[in-house]
Amino acid sequence: MRGSPPSQRASPRTDEPAASPACAAKKPPTSRAPSSPTSTRYYYLLDPEARERTGDWEQVACETVAMLRLEAGRCPGDRRLADLIGELTLTSPEFSTWWNDHRVLRHTHGAAHYWHPLVGDLHFSYEFMQLPGDDNQTLCVYLSRIPGHLQQLERLHDRTAPDPRPTGPGS
Questions:
Q1: For the segment 30-58, what is each residue's pLDDT rounded down to a tens digit?
Q2: Of 21, 22, 27, 60, which is most buried by a Cβ count within 10 Å?
Q3: Is residue 140 a contact partner of residue 159, using CB atoms and an 8 Å limit?
Q4: Dihedral over alpha carbons 125, 110, 14, 98 (to 10 degrees)
């Protein structure tokens, strides 16, 4: 995206332009509305299901705010980012408290625990990797070494993947 106008560059707001089906399925459909990009900020801070489905939700949500503060410092003129911060201030009960802590976090790795209604507990370690040549693009890789996890993820993929059969007239 080098050389693109600012409005075309990747977002520091943690919009997720792509995710594997298993990764995307860990979040409920309400956080993946087709009219707007998926945002981890919206999911952790505004989606009620995140509180139930994310292990140690409070720590994850607080760290999410600290990462947002880092991005606000990196991109002080980003109007959409300022709008997001304003919206979260008005709509998330905890956001203002965490924002006013002035904590800044550059998250590069960690552990994640999710509960999914179709397959139960999912535990991952993850790494964020900055893509060369673009500070706004990050690749996140989730790994699991827990016995039986592969079968859980395959079941989750099988239950959430779109039907590959053609639909419509003449199919």
A1: 444 433 445 778 888 988 889 999 989 99
A2: 27
A3: no
A4: 140
